[in-house]
Structure formats: C-alpha cells, structure tokens
C-alpha cells in the first residue's frame, strides 16, 4: 500500500509514484476479517507520508473504529470508501481494493470502446474486465449494487469518466493488477495519439488469454515483484512500515 506513494524513477516503484500522484485510495481488509474491519489511508496525508501505523481502521460504514477512544475526530474520506466498502462487502476474495484517478485511466474510461486489444497488457486486462457507468461525483449507497454487478467476478473495473479499480487477494496482487491496467491505458492513449489505424490483436488470441484468465490475472507476478518493491521502498522511504 505504501508503495503507491513512494517517490522514485524508472523502476516499478517509480511507476507507483505516478499512480500515487493521481488520487489513489487503497483499502485493505484488516486481519479481523469476520468483523469486516478495513485499513484506509488517513485523509490529508501525502502518499510519501503514510506509514503503517498512520493507516486508519474503519468499519463497513466508513467510520473509524477507534474514534470512540480518540480525543478528536480521525480524518478519513467516508465518500471515498463507498466504492471500496461495496466491493469488500460483496467479494470475500478481494482483500485489497485499489482505485485510482490516473490521467491515462480516465482518458481511456472516457472512450466509448474502452480498452482496445492492441497490446499484450491490454489482453491481460480484457480477460477479466468490467465497466461501470458514471453516476456523478456524489457516490451514495444506492450505487453500490450496480457497482458490484458491474465488477462481477472480474479483477479489473473501468469506472467510466472516472478512473480505474482493481481487486486482489493481497495488496501485491491489487497493485500489480493496477500497474498493468494503467500501462494498458497509457499505451492506448499513445497509440491513438497519432491518429493512424491501430492493429487489433485477433480474437482467437484474445480468447486464448481469456481461457487462462484466472491463471494470468492471479499470476501477474505479485510474489515475484512485491519483495523487490518493498526493498526499494525501504531504501527510499525508510520507516514506512512503522
Ligand atoms: Zn474515484
């Protein structure tokens, strides 16, 4: 989670920074799973300031669990949790939900045809992608059933005119799914920038990827890439885990 705010260049963690500079809110189900407690970033903190102990534990209502024992209100963004709480409540397998307002993601979300099959990255996304139409900034509980319906059992959800969302069985999986989602969108924006005809990957190849969807989308390399991302984070932002 902290990686999303780490500064750096070039390497995967550097990519995370660019995600972090857009609005990102990850939420992670806390260990007390049966009680439905979640960890979310403290409202107003930069992603390079967030540490493990600054995360706020909240319930499905979006309210801080520990506020009753605190002298002052704990700042969280309850509106921002509407999306996350809907997914967490509906998907037991979604231990981490990540949502970004990245520029490339929003740009593609505004394109009528959505994600195009023009890169290998896009094939991974298309193998497990849903779309959710924009209903306005003021998200409310009434939108939750449609959000859950549109996500379905997918890993990737494109929020039309709004941004990207991924789910994962771990923070690593959700982050790496977001990394490839954002990459697919960035590639598409660049590929379309010249205005020339695009080569679409043939349907049989896409179908082949879809047949392996579960394997592919869960195998984005979380276990492989995450430890090195954490080591990088430790080098550049020591103390993130305190
Ligand atoms: Zn949003």
Helix fraction bin? 25-40%
Structural class: alpha+beta
Catalogue the ligands.
zinc ion
CATH class: Alpha Beta
Strand sequence of the main sheet, in spatial order? Answer: 3-2-1-4-7-6-5
Sum up the structure in keywords.
single chain, 7 strands, alpha+beta, binds zinc ion, 242 residues
Structure, described:
A hairpin with a 3-residue loop joins strand 6 (156-159) and strand 7 (163-168). The longest helix has 23 residues, at 171-193. The protein has a single domain (2-236), classed as Class II aldolase/adducin N-terminal domain (L-fuculose-1-phosphate Aldolase, 3-Layer(aba) Sandwich). Helix content is 39%, strand content 13%. The chain has 242 residues and is α+β, with helices and mostly antiparallel strands. It is globular, with a radius of gyration of 18 Å. The structure holds zinc ion. Zinc ion (ZN) is lined by residues 99, 101, 162-163. Residues 99, 101, 162-163 line the site of zinc ion (ZN).
